Amino acid sequence: MRKNIRIKDIALKAGVSIGTVDRVLHKRGEVSTKTKTRIQQIIDELDYRPNLLASSLASKKSIVFATLMPRSSSLDTYWSKPQNGVEKAMGQLRAYGVKLQQYFFDMDDSRSFSSQGEKLLLDAPDAVLLAPWAKREALRLTKQLDEREIPYIYIDANLEETNPIGFVAQSPFDSGFLAAKLIDWGVKERSLILLIHVAKELDNASHLIKRERGFMRYFEEMKSHHRIVKLEVSGKEDEINSHLNKLGIDPCDVSGVFVTNSKVHLAAACFKALCITPKIIGYDLIPQNIALLKDGKIDFLICQKPELQGYRAIHLLFDSLVKKEIIKRENYTSIDLITKENIDFYNSI
Amino acid sequence: MRKNIRIKDIALKAGVSIGTVDRVLHKRGEVSTKTKTRIQQIIDELDYRPNLLASSLASKKSIVFATLMPRSSSLDTYWSKPQNGVEKAMGQLRAYGVKLQQYFFDMDDSRSFSSQGEKLLLDAPDAVLLAPWAKREALRLTKQLDEREIPYIYIDANLEETNPIGFVAQSPFDSGFLAAKLIDWGVKERSLILLIHVAKELDNASHLIKRERGFMRYFEEMKSHHRIVKLEVSGKEDEINSHLNKLGIDPCDVSGVFVTNSKVHLAAACFKALCITPKIIGYDLIPQNIALLKDGKIDFLICQKPELQGYRAIHLLFDSLVKKEIIKRENYTSIDLITKENIDFYNSI
DNA sequence: AAATTTTCCGTGTTCGTACACGAATTGAAA
DNA sequence: TTTCAATTCGTGTACGAACACGGAAAATTT
Predict the structure, then answer these.
(1) Which residues of B220-253 are buried (b: 16+ CB within 10 A; e: fewer)?
(2) DSSP track, B153-169
C-alpha cells in the first residue's frame, strides 16, 4: 500500500508551511521565486495529485455547468437521452460541488436557441455543454463564449469553425459507410437500394449529408453494381410511396433501404403496409423504431449512444475544469449495431 | 441551490449532539430507544444521505477488494482486458479508501486456481471478484466464501449453483443466436455453414455449448434450409482442413463460418490460405482477430466488453459494500458487433 | 535613521464525518 | 451502602485541502 502524497508531505520536505505550498499550487499570493521553484520541483518529483475529496470538501465555491439542448417534447424522445446522461453524470459530480443550469430551445425555432443562449450568458456559467443545432445562431453564441473565455463542449455534432474544448459525437461519414456495408452484405448483386433523407431543411442538417457521403463512398470503393436511388421527403404520410411512383419505381423491386436519421420508422411503416420486406437500416433507438425492429420490419438500427454523449461530455468538462486534465478534442462514440436479437442487452451508457 | 442535510442539522433538530446521531446512523454505541426512534424519524423525514466524500475522508479504515482471474500471458491477451477495467475502476475508487489485492491463476492448471484461492482466503478481503474458470474448484472456493460471509461477484460467466451477489457477463446463448442471424443474412439460401469449437476441454467451457445452442436455435426457429456442420478442433495447425477432408467437404462449398470463441483467427487464417472467403464470425477483439478483421478475412467479431466487465464488477462491489445499495444480480453486457468499418471507433469501456 | 510599503510565509479555522475518550447516569449484585 | 458494569451521551480531534489573517523580514521611501 503506497501512501498518498499530501500537501503536508511536500511542505515537510521543502521545509516550509502548507500555506506556502498551497500558494504555489494555486498561483495565489506571493512566494519568492527561489522557494517557488524548490517547491515546484518537489511537487513534480513526488508526482503530487491533490485529493479531490478533501479539495472539494474544503472549497466552498461551487462550479456551474450550463447545458443548452433541444427541449425533448413528446414528439421527439431522442433528446431526452442526452439529458438522462447529463443527469446521471451530475448525480456523481454533485458531491464535488458541481452545479447544473439547464436551458432548452425549441428545435423548430432557431430564435429560441438565441434567446436561451442570451439567458445562459447572463448567468455566466463556468462551462457550457451545447448541441450545435442552428448553425448561424450557434456561431454567434460560441463567439460570445470565446470572448468571455467560457469553455464549451459539443454533443451530437462538431461545429468546424469554432473552438470548443472538445466534442462528443459519432462520425456520420463512417456510420453511413457501415450502413452501406450491411446493406451490401444482405442483398443480392445488382439490387435496387434506396437512400432516404427525412428532414425539413436538409441544409441545416449537415450530418445527414455526411452520412450520405459515407454510404455512397462504400459502393464507390467496392465498385458494386447496385442501383442507388436517393429520396428526399419531409415526413408526411405516404410521401415515400408517391415519390417512388413519380420515379416509376415498383416498391417490390427495392431490396435495401437506408434512412439517414431516426425517421426510419416512417419508411419501415410504409413498406410494412405494402407487405414488402426489404432490408432496412436507420438510426436511433426511439420507441417507434424499437417496435419496428422487434417486429422484424427494421433490420438494423445504428445507435449514437446519446445518453453516453451527454454523460461523457459532462465528465470531460469536469476533468478539464476541476481535475485540470488535458482532454481530447475529438471524442467519437462507437457505431453500435442494434438488431432484434441484441437490443434487450443493450446498455445505453 | 438546495443545501445538503448534514449530521449537524439532524442533531440540531433532534436536540442532541452529532455524536448521538452518528451512533444511530451506524448502530454503534448505546442510545436510548426513545431518542433513537426520534432521531431515526428525523433522518427519514429529512431524507438524509451521508456525504461520501467526507465520510471516506474521515474514516481511516480501508476496504479491500480481491480479484481472482486468469493470468494474462502473452499467449492470451484476452484476460488483460478485464484486468484493465479493474484497474480503471480502482483508479476512481482508491480515493474512497478502497484497496485491491490481486491473485492470478494459470488457465491450464486448475490446481493453481485452488492454491490462489487459498491465499485469497487467508488474506480475508472484504469482497471478491472472480472469474469462475474451473467449475469444481470454483464451487469449493465460493462455499468457503459463503461460510466466511465474504460477498463475491463473477465476471465472464455465471456459476448457477452458487450465491454471488451478482455476475457481469454476456449472454452466450443470445450471442450465438445473433451470430446465426448475421450468417443467415449474409449467405444465400441452402448454404453450407460451419460451426467450429476450438477448445481443449469442451466440457469445461459450458458457455461455448450455450453459444452453439443459441446458434442452432436460430436456424430451427427460422426453419432455414442451410446445412450446418459442426467441427471440434483443439487448435493445432491445419486441423480444420483435415477435418473437412475427412467429412468429404470441399472448403470451397463453405459459405459461412461461426467460431464459438476468440480462436476464430485460426479458421480465418485457414481459409485465407486457401484463398476462399466465406462469411466468418467469431468472438473477441484480440490482436490476431483484429488484424484479420481489418484484412477482410473476418466479417464480424462479437465483443464481450471484457474491460467493461471488470470495470463494472468493481463498481458493483463498491455500490454494494460502500454505498450499501442493492445491486442487480444479473448484469448482462451488450452483444456488440464489430466490423472492419466501426472498429476504429470502438470504446471498450 | 525612522517610517512605510512590499514581499514572503506561518497559523488557525473550516468543510462533514468517524471515532476515541471520558463523564454521567442507571441498575443490579454483593 | 458499596462496588462494578452497563448504558447513555458530549467533546475533541483527525482526515486533506482551501483560504483568510496577520506577523516578520526585506525593500523602499521619507
Answers:
(1) eeeebebebeebebeeeeebbeebbeeeebebee
(2) EEESS--TTS--SEEEE
Sorting pLDDT into bands at 50, 70 and 90, what band is A1? very low
How many Cβ atoms from other residues are within 10 Å of residue A233's Cβ? 19
pLDDT tens digits, A105-130: 988 888 899 999 999 999 999 999 99
Looking at the 3D structure of chain B, how many domains does it have?
A: 3
Same domain, A68 and A90: yes
- Which set of grid coordinates corresponds to residue B307? 474491460
Query: Gap from A323 CA to C2 C1', in Å?
Result: 50
Q: Is the pLDDT of residue A201 over 70?
A: no
Task: Supply the range of the domain harboring residue B182.
Answer: 172-303
Mean pLDDT across B258-262: 95
Across the interface, whether the CB atoms of A342 and B178 are under 8 A apart is answered yes
- Write out the three cell numbers for A283: 438510426
Q: Is A215 part of a structural domain of the chain?
A: yes
Residues A250/A303, Cβ–Cβ less than 8 Å: no
Q: For residues B262 and A169, give the distance between their C-alpha atoms in angstroms, rounded to a whole number.
A: 30
* pLDDT classification of B323: cutoffs 50, 70, 90: confident
CB contact under 8 A, A1 and B99: yes
* CB-neighbour burial class of residue B142 (10 A; exposed 0-12, middle 13-18, buried 19+): buried
Distance A19 CA to D23 C1' (A): 14
A34 CA to C7 C1' in angstroms comes to 13
Contacts of A336 in chain B (CB under 8 A): 334, 336-337, 342
List CB-based contacts (under 7 A) with strand C.
A 11, 15-20, 23, 29-36, 54, 57-58, 60; B 4, 6-8, 18-19, 22, 25-26, 28-29, 50-51, 54-55, 57-61
Q: What is the pLDDT of residues B95-139, one digit of tens each?
A: 788 889 999 998 888 889 999 999 999 999 999 999 988 888 999
Residue at shortest CA–C1' distance from D7: B30
What pLDDT was estimated at residue B302? 97
Chain A: residue whose CA lies nearest to B339: A178
CATH number of the domain at B124, please.
Answer: 3.40.50.2300
Instruction: Establish if B341 belongs to a structural domain.
Output: no
- Grid cell in block for residue A325: 486534465
